[in-house]
Q: What sequence folds into this?
């Protein structure tokens, strides 16, 4: 009996679950879960076909996965890894964004040239909005009033009023826009163009182009420098931009719009996610099938972790 | 004991003095690896970054890869340079003075070897400092951890130089050393390209590289610079040091060695 308090103490001292990064593996139909403390894959979870976009509900109780070739958005219990149900998503969902109301998913349907709005509670399609050809990137403003869809072939950012669910502006960007993000409290919109090799920055109030960032990597043909996913550091001071087959991540000063650094990562770097305090960045490297961990302060790659084949999306999950 | 320490100090400091007085030698010793690092490697920057090999944990640019190899290159050239000075000493007659000192010949050679290794390590640190200024660096503690690896690699290559100098009768023959020792040793190693890359083109070349003690000296430096242990490289470099030292002792043994033929 004397050992009971000791056991209780040991249980208390036992480490709680660690923070995790969830990575979708496009060709393996799985998710690799990386433990941020050990930087190792601790779980591999099967999903629908060709998982790409991934995002957690705001309370982290469920995770949404775009299973593109299953034509579904899957809702998974992150604790058990069990698929709870599918959401109607329209055909070939690639990327999506969860509205700040934690209830509406805005999904880009690549093959149908539409953006589908799904109510995750009633599991029904609330609206389908016609956008340009091959929609891909999705973003929603912090106040939830504007949603953005980028279309790969039309080369536009489409501005959707989330109340009326109508387009209210279309703005041209460079060739094959991939990813969009609102920054600086929703006053700026950044859109990356994969083939154009640029990021276009819009003033949200007027929907006009404010700046354009071009990228170059020494000793690399410009065709291989393809900005795709990007994320912002604390305070939106710097953006880390994945440059696709150039195998580098660029560090961009979000005030001056200048490229300050290039970090070598794995092959065909695509998307990325930060840890809780944004001190570490995890990039998905499609062709080399790994995730590179970047020390944000020192702007250095620390380690590359093998995951499944063609890792695509990444999302952070705090310790439970 | 004083006799020994005086002799050791005299021989080692003579080696250092010789180096200090030849500023262009110091410059040349730094320019050579820097040209490789800043010119050659720049052209091949994108050539690597395709696979991760220990001790690296992620993808690295080519400059980072060849940094330990160039440290090895400095020690290799330094070892050979020190052997060149022995050949010179023999020609000018000051070697006779050295070898007739009333101390074991092995000790005299070892003192000379220590002096040469010390100079080599100085050059390596100067090179590492310049490389870091150009953004090609290693973990901070790695610069300390690499010291024992540099000492062993320096001793090994210095001992090789000593052994060779006992075979070379004239200064003119030293060009042969360049062709038959330095170049093959440097290019048939992991200094410029990882061994898996070599295996892709030729298994035989890969095996030759693997048997080359210089490869293991470079790997020992590489692992130490990244605070990792490589027992196999340590063993191989240690064995090669002992073997080269024994060869040098044999070469300089007046009873059996090659010096007698000269004398």
A:
């Amino acid at each position: 009996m004397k050992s009971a308090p000791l056991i209780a103490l040991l249980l208390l001292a036992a480490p709680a679950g660690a923070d995790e990064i969830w990575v979708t593996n496009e060709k393996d139909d799985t998710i690799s879960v990386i433990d941020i403390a050990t930087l190792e894959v601790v779980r591999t979870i099967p999903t629908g076909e060709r998982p790409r976009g991934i995002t957690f509900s705001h309370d982290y109780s469920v995770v949404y996965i775009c299973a593109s070739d299953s034509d579904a958005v899957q809702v998974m219990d992150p604790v058990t890894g069990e698929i709870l149900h599918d959401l109607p998503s329209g055909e070939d969902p690639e990327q999506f964004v969860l509205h700040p109301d934690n209830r509406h998913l805005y999904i880009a349907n690549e093959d149908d040239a539409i953006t589908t709005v799904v109510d995750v509670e009633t599991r029904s399609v609330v609206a389908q909005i016609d956008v340009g050809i091959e929609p891909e990137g999705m973003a929603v403003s912090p106040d939830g009033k504007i949603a953005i869809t980028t279309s790969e072939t039309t080369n536009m950012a489409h501005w959707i009023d989330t109340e009326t669910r109508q387009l209210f502006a279309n703005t041209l960007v460079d060739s094959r826009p991939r990813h969009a993000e609102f920054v600086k409290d929703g006053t700026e919109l950044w859109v990356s163009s994969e083939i154009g090799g640029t990021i276009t920055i819009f003033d949200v109030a007027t929907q006009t182009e404010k700046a354009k960032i071009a990228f170059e990597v020494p000793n690399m043909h410009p065709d291989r420098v393809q900005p795709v996913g990007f994320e912002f550091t604390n305070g939106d001071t710097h953006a880390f931009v994945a440059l696709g087959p150039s195998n580098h991540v660029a560090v961009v000063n979000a005030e001056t719009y200048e490229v300050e650094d290039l970090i070598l990562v794995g092959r065909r770097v695509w998307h990325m996610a930060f840890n809780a305090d944004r001190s570490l960045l995890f990039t998905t490297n499609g062709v080399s099938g790994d995730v590179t961990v970047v020390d944000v302060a020192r702007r250095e790659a620390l380690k590359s972790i093998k995951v499944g084949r063609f890792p695509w999306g990444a999302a952070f999950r705090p310790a439970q | 004991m004083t006799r020994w320490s005086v002799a050791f100090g005299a021989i080692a400091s003579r080696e250092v003095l010789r180096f200090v007085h030849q500023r262009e030698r110091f410059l040349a010793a730094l320019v050579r690896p820097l040209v490789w690092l800043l010119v050659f490697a720049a052209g091949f920057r994108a050539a690597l970054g395709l696979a991760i090999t220990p001790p690296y944990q992620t993808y690295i640019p080519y400059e980072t890869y060849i940094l330990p190899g160039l440290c090895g290159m400095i020690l290799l050239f330094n070892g050979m340079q020190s052997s060149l000075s022995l050949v010179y000493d023999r020609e000018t007659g000051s070697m006779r003075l050295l070898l007739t000192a009333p101390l074991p010949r092995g000790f005299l050679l070892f003192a000379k070897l220590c002096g040469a290794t010390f100079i080599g390590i100085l050059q390596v640190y100067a090179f590492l400092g310049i490389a870091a200024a150009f953004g090609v660096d290693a973990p901070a503690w790695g610069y300390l951890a690499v010291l024992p690896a540099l000492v062993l690699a320096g001793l090994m290559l210095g001992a090789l130089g000593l052994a060779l100098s006992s075979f070379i009768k004239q200064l003119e023959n030293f060009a042969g050393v360049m062709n038959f020792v330095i170049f093959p040793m440097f290019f048939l190693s992991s200094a410029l390209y990882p061994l898996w890359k070599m295996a892709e083109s030729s298994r035989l070349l890969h095996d030759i590289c693997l048997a080359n003690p210089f490869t293991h000296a470079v790997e020992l430096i590489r692992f130490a610079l990244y605070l990792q242990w490589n027992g196999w490289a340590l063993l191989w470099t240690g064995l090669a040091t002992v073997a080269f030292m024994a060869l040098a002792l044999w070469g300089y043994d007046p009873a059996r060695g090659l010096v007698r033929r000269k004398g």
